[in-house]
């Protein structure tokens, strides 16, 4: 996993609540056995209007957001299907951090597995960011994971919370499986005890 | 230890180690695997030179991407075919049990787990699929994971977790006639919202829940994720034990007696505290129909589609308007005036034998409206076989339904079963997101009885005075 320390980037706006992973990447792009090259499917049904033409108002069709690394959105982002193709597609586009008032659990977790930092901010902070992003051609902020701060160019600093274990893994780019395998003796001891207590499980 | 909830008991039994900050290494008893979310996990194992820690704790089946028409023809889509052959090859390489497309035991992963007796009370169960919450019907802690965690579980039989919060959803009273667990869960989601369960494990309690069969409890727990919950649980009781008994993968003989005693002890203690409690009355839950583009956009069958002009909150108003535009619905139209083009009876929510029996009852001796195309997709080869033994296939076929092979089918439309743009479907599945059943397709979530009646009438009907 790519480490995450600080990130300064252009913020792309997606002003919708309850964005589900079926929208982030529709099912026709899930017929792959790889985790790369999924950018093509990112918001595929929202990028295109029903008549097949591109929607010029959608962020990923706008030139100023082609290099965006930060996505700004609303409540319950990533709800629905557990498909990790959703963060893979966002990562393939270049998104490394997502700012929202809340996230769906599985998506939130999947982000950390892929070096994407999901940041929960207050609805008020998110609104301020939307106002700034939409009033300028491009708007950049800095995401500082070590300090747990989003720094705005005007000087405001929004602090955020993050689980210490996840933070450590992100900053060091650690392999989660490798970490768990360090506890192999504890896992073996658990299995030995549990197979006596509840033998039907083994 | 004091009073504990069912969730806390299961969680505590599965803690391998816990850090002072609460980060927990949680042991996973069973792992279900399907073709869409596993290829990259197996590839990860290979690249790292790792092997599954307990291959026999996993069971794999292709379901999302399989054709539901004649399987002797193979799979015409080369991408789907590659995904399924990749699963088969990965299972052979790593020694994981695999029920292939020609196996009578093949079916939707959340139907076959319980059917085979793989799902047992008190277990932790995961799968790279959000509807893993289904297995909570047995009092198992079951939740969906991403592909990285699929790899993690294969390699270590554990996951790194933080303890979620708990919510009790209590449904007391008596459900009206003709109402089903599907109506109850849709009403719950309508009440708490699609983000209402974020970060929480829900335990469903109360007389209405206790009255549900195991299959009904599966329908209920299945859609916990549609309320944003991490998992849903129903405490094991005699119905649970009776369902599990004698299944191919469940314990036998003395071991079953020992296990069932432990299972019946698994319940929330009197006075156990939940972080949140929500109460509903069964009497207040008529048949439900979704009108919008997420499962929380739902109303009573006697109700009307909302009118954005009546909504004060600007964000709710614009989301409602957007949903109505997508769904092609006039504001304030009566639910029963909504005409449909397609009916889908199937999915991990409602494709079990009891669902098919109920649906068949409403179409027996009747015929699907000439304007409607309707299909039934049983949840597994064994459900299909059982239904055929009971003559349900004949009832459906004579009424004009297509009778298909088992799989996820038009719940997510990864295979050839797809709505065309603008088509409107009464569906027993779990998600009405934009494009879920096909780009531009319009989905209304309902119970099997409501879907069957709508197929015949050509529009939604209140089954309470229709039957």
Keywords:
A: 202 residues, alpha/beta, seven-stranded mixed sheet, globular, B: 467 residues, five-stranded parallel sheet
Summarize it.
The complex is a heterodimer of chains A (202) and B (467). Chain A has helices spanning 21-24, 44-47, 85-93, 105-112, 123-135, 164-172, 176-181, 184-197, and strands spanning 6-13, 70-72, 97-100, 117-120, 140-144, 149-151, 157-159. Chain A is an alpha/beta fold and 202 residues long.
- Biggest interface pair, counts: A-B, 54 and 75 residues
CATH class of chain A: Alpha Beta
Calculate the mean pLDDT score of chain B and round it: 97
Largest sheet of chain A: 7 strands, mixed
Number of strands of chain B: 19
Strand tally of chain A is 7
Judged by helices, strands and strand pairing, the structural class of chain A is alpha/beta
* Mean pLDDT metric of chain A: 97
Radius of gyration of chain B: 21 Å
Label the CATH architecture of chain A. Alpha-Beta Barrel
Radius of gyration of chain A: 19 Å
Taking pLDDT < 50 over at least 5 consecutive residues as the criterion, the unreliable ranges of chain B are none
Structural class of chain B: alpha/beta
């Amino acid at each position: 996993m790519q480490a995450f320390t600080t990130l300064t980037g252009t913020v792309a706006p997606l002003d919708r609540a309850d964005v589900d992973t079926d929208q982030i990447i529709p099912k026709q792009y899930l017929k792959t056995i790889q985790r790369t090259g999924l950018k093509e499917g990112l918001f595929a049904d929202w990028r295109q209007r029903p008549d097949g033409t591109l929607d010029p108002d959608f962020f990923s069709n706008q030139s100023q957001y082609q290099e965006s690394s930060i996505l700004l959105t609303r409540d319950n982002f990533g709800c629905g299907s557990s498909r990790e193709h959703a963060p893979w597609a966002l990562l393939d586009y270049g998104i490394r951090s997502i700012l929202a008032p809340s996230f769906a659990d599985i998506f939130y977790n999947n982000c950390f597995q892929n070096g994407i930092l999901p940041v929960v901010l207050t609805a008020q902070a998110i609104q301020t960011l939307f106002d700034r992003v939409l009033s300028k051609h491009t708007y950049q902020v800095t995401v500082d994971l070590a300090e747990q701060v989003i720094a705005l160019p005007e000087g405001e600093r929004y602090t955020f919370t993050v689980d210490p274990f996840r933070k450590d893994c992100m900053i060091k780019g650690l392999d989660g499986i490798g970490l768990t395998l360090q506890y192999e003796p504890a896992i073996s001891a658990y299995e030995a005890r549990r197979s006596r207590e509840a033998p039907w499980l083994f | 230890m004091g009073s504990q909830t069912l969730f806390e008991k299961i969680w505590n039994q599965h803690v391998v180690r816990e850090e002072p900050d609460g980060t927990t290494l949680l042991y996973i008893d069973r792992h279900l695997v399907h073709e869409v979310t596993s290829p990259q996990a197996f590839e990860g194992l290979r690249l790292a030179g790792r092997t599954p820690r307990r291959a026999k704790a996993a069971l794999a089946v292709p379901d999302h991407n399989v054709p539901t028409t004649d399987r002797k023809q193979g799979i015409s889509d080369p991408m789907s075919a590659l995904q399924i052959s990749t699963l088969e090859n990965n299972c052979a390489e790593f020694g994981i049990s695999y029920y292939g497309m020609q196996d009578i035991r093949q079916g939707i992963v959340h139907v076959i787990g319980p059917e085979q007796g793989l799902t047992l009370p008190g277990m932790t169960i995961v799968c790279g699929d959000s509807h893993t919450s289904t297995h909570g019907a047995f009092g198992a802690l079951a939740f969906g994971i991403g592909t990285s965690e699929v790899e993690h579980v294969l390699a270590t039989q554990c996951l790194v977790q933080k303890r979620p919060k708990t919510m009790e959803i209590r449904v007391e009273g008596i459900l009206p006639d003709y109402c089903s667990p599907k109506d109850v869960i849709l009403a719950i989601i309508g009440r708490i919202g699609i983000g209402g369960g974020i970060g929480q494990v829900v335990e469903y309690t109360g007389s209405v829940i206790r009255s549900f069969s195991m299959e009904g409890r599966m329908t209920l727990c299945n859609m916990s994720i549609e309320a944003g919950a991490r998992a849903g649980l129903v405490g094991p009781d005699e119905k649970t034990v009776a369902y599990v008994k004698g299944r191919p993968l469940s314990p036998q003989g003395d071991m079953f007696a020992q296990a069932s005693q432990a299972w019946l002890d698994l319940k929330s203690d009197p006075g156990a505290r939940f972080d949140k409690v929500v109460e509903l009355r069964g009497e207040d839950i008529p048949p439900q129909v979704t009108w919008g583009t997420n499962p929380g956009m739902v109303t009573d069958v006697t109700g009307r589609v909302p009118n954005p002009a009546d909504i004060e909150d600007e964000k709710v108003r614009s989301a409602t308007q957007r949903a109505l535009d997508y769904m092609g619905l006039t504001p304030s139209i009566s639910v029963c005036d909504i005409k449909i083009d397609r009916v889908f009876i199937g999915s991990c929510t409602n494709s079990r034998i009891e669902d098919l029996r109920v649906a068949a009852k409403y179409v027996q001796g009747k015929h699907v409206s000439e304007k409607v195309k309707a299909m039934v997709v049983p949840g597994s080869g064994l459900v299909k076989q059982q239904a055929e033994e009971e003559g349900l296939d004949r009832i459906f076929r004579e009424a004009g339904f297509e009778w298909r092979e088992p799989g996820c089918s038009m719940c997510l439309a990864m295979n050839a079963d797809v709505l065309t743009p603008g088509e409107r479907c009464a569906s027993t599945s779990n998600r009405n997101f934009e494009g879920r059943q096909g780009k531009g397709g319009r989905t209304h979530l309902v119970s099997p009885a409501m879907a069957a009646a709508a197929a015949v009438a050509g529009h939604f009907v209140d089954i309470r005075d229709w039957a």
